[in-house]
Amino acid sequence: MAKTLPKVDVVTVGVGWTGGILAAELAKDGMKVVGLERGKERSTEDYLHGHDELRYALRYELMQDTSKETITFRNNRKQRALPMRQLGSFLLGENLGGAGVHWNGQTYRFFPYDFEIKSMTEKKYGKGKIKDGYFVQDWGITYDELEPYYDQFEKACGISGEENPMAGKRSNPYPTPPMKSTRSLDKFAEATKELGYKPYRIPSANLSEPYKNQYGLQINACQYCAFCERFGCEYGAKSDPVISVIPAAQESGNYEIRYHSNVTEVIYDGSKVTGVKYVDVQSGEEFIQPAEVVALTSYVMNNVKFLLMSDIGQKYDPKSGQGVVGRSYCYQILPGATGFYEEEQFNTFMGAGALGTSINDYYGDNFDHSELDFIHGGVISITQTGKRPIANNPTPPDTPRWGKEFKSNSIKYYTRTLTIGSQGASLPYKENFLDLDPTYKDAYGLPLLRMTYNFTDQDKKLQKYITQKTAEISEKMGASKTVPNPELTDYSIVPYQTTHNTGGAIMGADPNSSVVNSYLQHWNAENLFVVGASAFAHNGGVNPTDTVGALAYRAAEGIKKYRKNGGSLV
């Protein structure tokens, strides 16, 4: 029988970026906060000898153990979903800091267009521009309303960047200057300017100089060692939750993290939540943690799973199109082109996770869609993240896969290859959703989350269009041979593509078409906040972390208001 513990003000389910931000903001405000983390504690000291590509980049040392919990996947409802036994398409986080520890650090804001996509699209192109079957809707908040929270998150991270000439207005400059440039970034900037575009440096959580944030926490300057994505930063130079926000909560004296605590249920009485049930995975003991406020802070997959398991809100039914929980799952597409150079070499083995230059000329509605059979777009970038030797072996497509010529080209093109990449926006479609698997269960006897997902016509047309633009840039940069990315077919759970999953518990202004309001407060349980990219009404064409962080700061403000006044916040 579960042991009931003393009641606290707030309990968060997961201690990554969102759980850490809520803890930092609420604990310093005097609230007693408990963070339940199913993994273990970790710190920068754990990464002192972590430059092991095989262990961390390929065998996913820092990530979720799929032997204990995973998801099942299918492309459509006619297929039987099967468990993802090895992390592939995306890399789920685990342990203190979650995926915020092993991210690259690219920290873009979404554009004003993203938050009012439906109204802006229909105003310019008419209602017929959004095709049937796509659940495209405004977010219930504008860019200008969210901007102060973007500013808070970027100050917490000390983001290094420069003004983006095509983005929404900023209340303040980036806290630190952009990172160093390199020859490959300079070539991209020169070529895109000649093509009439507006390049700018990628906003980076790998800092260009030492910085102290609003909590008094120190973040160091990047060493350009090329071990960012899939690795923790031993030098404390990549902003992550463990160094940027969690210590502020701990210093308040009002915060407790309980490790190895796997939540199994959000306790719901039909109008409010009263706490959560969790199991200590080391001892097997069960506990109930009562709380005035429960915050689900597990990014996407587990946020949605907890709502479905606890029967909070109307589950999405793809047959009728009714319901909201599990609806609007989105991903991203990756247009791009790779250029091979015969003479010029680039030090691509060096770099940092967010070292790069971008253009936004093909983002959102920054280009005319009148004659195009899709909407939105994506950022186009060149990055120098550091090409590690095991996972990077670029050769032209006509190279044999073994033998003398393969070896020769592998050596030759290791430093003579540049990729122009993009992240294409993803729109919610009626047949792409999350629900509970009826067959498979996790290590604790709970149903696995089931993903039903495939690329849509919108995805395929956007991929083809943006890929063409990236190839043009590659050729302008002087590549002797440019190889565009292939056209999309069916989505596959392997190989790795991006960890930018979104949706399933989306925000909005109407409870009939959203799960949470603009403070991420659940429509059906006023003391439940669902914080993460699960709230995204669609996925934009850049990395989601900045928007996740901004929404977490807004949710923290919402919890403060709720604790003071109670009731719905909108």
Automatic annotation (TrEMBL):
Residues covered by the Glucose-methanol-choline oxidoreductase C-terminal domain: 428-552
Spell out the SUPFAM superfamilies in the cross-references. Answer: FAD-linked reductases, C-terminal domain, FAD/NAD(P)-binding domain
Tell me which InterPro entries the record gives.
FAD/NAD-bd_sf, GMC_OxRtase_C
Record-level Gene Ontology MF annotations = oxidoreductase activity, acting on CH-OH group of donors
* Keywords, comma-separated and alphabetical: FAD, Flavoprotein, Oxidoreductase
Q: Where is this region: Disordered?
A: 162-182
User: Could you name the domain of life of the organism this protein comes from?
Assistant: Bacteria
- Family the entry assigns: Belongs to the GMC oxidoreductase family.
Q: Which PANTHER family match?
A: LONG-CHAIN-ALCOHOL OXIDASE
| Name of protein | GMC family oxidoreductase
